[in-house]
Amino acid sequence: MKLKGVDLGKPYVETIVIPRGQGVIVLEAQAVLDYDAFFALCPVPTPPSAMRRDKATGTIVEYKDVEDQKYTAMIMDWSTKKVAWMVIQSLKATPELEWDTVVDGDPETWKNYETELKEANFSAREIDRIIEGVTTSCGLNEDKIKEATQSFLAGRVQAESET
Questions:
Q1: How far apart are the C-alpha atoms of 156 and 149, rounded to whole Å?
Q2: What is the pLDDT of residues 43-70, one digit of tens each?
């Protein structure tokens, strides 16, 4: 696919620079383009079926109980794993980055990424910066989207006023 005849190129990569003493730590976060691998390992949980009386007809009907406590706990766990997986996949753009306890194909280890970052002596704000870099690379940073939109529109207005 091309836009205005130009190949769109590679996925977006955000460079995350963290100053440390005499030097810097540089991480790369690349946009995650495909979640198929995640869904293969972690399908979306389905709510349990339950029965209730329909108020209008008085008949007993089956419905999906999305407020079931076990189901909501499963959805929270699934969502946490999805975010962790996104972070791990995005940071794969940093070829030198090695995890000690995070195993790519083992969803139960993915949440360890945050513990490992803490154990590597990243501060809370540095970890926030890493996550911000990941979300930016994946197009999930609303502030960056607004900034880019405003910049685009301002350039458009200026171009129109010049013609």
A1: 10
A2: 999 998 888 888 888 888 888 888 899 9
> Do β-strands 60-64 and 49-53 pair in parallel, antiparallel, or remain unpaired?
antiparallel
DSSP bridge pairs for 2: 7
Q: Which two tokens stand for residue 135?
A: 């979300």
Q: Tell me: the pLDDT tens digits for 74-109?
A: 999 999 999 999 999 999 999 999 999 999 999 999
- CA–CA separation, 105 and 85 (whole Å): 10
> What's phi and psi for 8, nearest 5 deg?
-75, -10
Side chain identity at residue 69, one-letter code: Q
The domain locations on the chain are 10-151
Closest to 105 measured CA to CA, from 88, 90, 130, 83: 88
